[in-house]
Amino acid sequence: MSQTIRHPEILDIARRDGKVTVDGLADHFGVTLQTIRRDLTDLAEAGRLERVHGGAVLPSGTVNIGYEERRRLNAEAKTAIARACAARIPEDCAVFLNIGTSTEAVATELMHHRNLLVVTNNMNVANILSRNPDCEVIVTGGSLRQSDGGLTGDITTAAIRQFKFDIGVIGCSAIDPDGDMLDFDVQEVGVSRAILARSRRTMLVADHSKLSRTAPARIASLSEVDLFITDRAPDVALRHRCDDWQTQVIVA
């Protein structure tokens, strides 16, 4: 198999899993480790991947992955995370769901919950839960991002401050090794901070790929979250930090 055939598939695997390893790709394609190292070097030099020890990850930077691509990325993991999250949301409560494909998955898993009040700045979440007759949906105002149906800005933040939520569910673009939740959009960061401040209990839903990515804007520390729901356990150092912060890590 030529590199022109391998390269697109390597990128597809990286988008799906968040990273690729030299050993895993060599087994997958039935080629030598040296061949895969050359492939990863070529893709890194082209700016398509970023080399790390033993493999490569999607490149860091200030540009997020396209929304439709994010929907496809780790879709099965997001469904498992969403189910674990929804199982911890009782009926008869007020919930905030923010922007993101993971929170959209949570909305889908809430379709059979009863007597929910859901406030959201995510038009996709609102559309999903509008089909649940036992759920009242309130959409915040704000500036509409056509790329993902998100509402952000001062109007959004002001609306959030009018509530006190039983549970706030947020996503993020990346998680730093020191436990900081990161995002690409500064206005979205302000919204996430407001959700954390106005929620009695907070949950972060983020698949494992977020642990190998970075983004420029800091939301808050995982110490400010009650539950971190993911699909793979974070490394030992971050797990110890979460234990110290009394942030419960749930692996779906």
Automatic annotation (TrEMBL):
UniProt cross-references to Gene3D superfamilies, sorted A to Z: 3.40.50.1360, Winged helix-like DNA-binding domain superfamily/Winged helix DNA-binding domain
One Gene Ontology MF term: DNA-binding transcription factor activity
Signal peptide boundaries: none
Coiled-coil regions listed: none
Annotated ranges, domain HTH deoR-type: 3-58
Keywords: Repressor, Transcription, Transcription regulation
PROSITE patterns (alphabetical): HTH_DEOR_2
Keyword Isomerase carried by entry: no
Name of the protein in its database record: Glycerol-3-phosphate regulon repressor
Organism field: Jannaschia rubra
Record lineage: Bacteria, Pseudomonadati, Pseudomonadota, Alphaproteobacteria, Rhodobacterales
Gene name of the record: glpR
